[in-house]
Amino acid sequence: MAGNAEMIIALDKKRMTAMAEKDYRTLNEVIADDLVDTHSSARLDTKASLIGNMEAGSTVYTSVVPSDVKAQDLGDAVVLTGTCRIGVTAGGRPASFGVRFTDVYARRGGTWQMVAWQSTRLPDSHVRRRDASRRLSPAGGSARSVRFICAAATGSGHAEKVCIADLSHRPVVRCSMWP
User: Fold this and answer.
1) Domain of 9: which CATH number?
2) CA distance 21 to 82
3) In the prediction, which pLDDT does 124 show?
4) Residues 6+ apart with CB under 8 A from 130
5) 111, containing H or E segment
């Protein structure tokens, strides 16, 4: 039966919100007992270990925000792909990063549950360039006048300067220190 795509996208968003809100009841309903969860760090979790680590406080999700989610409806299975921003404290270390994910839901006994998750961490530079292109534009210009953005990285890989040039081939029209 087709037509499940939007419903599963909404269900997955509900799951992500439940992770950040520590709503273990929703997580237990939405996640299958035989879940295979492959994190961007290559760590594997089952339903029991994922929720157990959250309940114990060793993994604390502060935000999980999806974007650009697409669905492939295969009848009794739906495959989701997209990106999301994750805020998490794991092992006492806070982190915030983006991932590209593939997520699989299956209908079992009339109930939809997440059966697999695989994510790949996005490079920080990917996120920074995208954010910079939204925030910075040439004086008096629009986003359409921006030709390219370059970020000068320090030895640690963090952007130190962001420079923008426009389509008229003039030299850099704005150069700003990274916030």
Assistant:
1) 3.10.450.50
2) 21
3) 83
4) none
5) strand 111-121
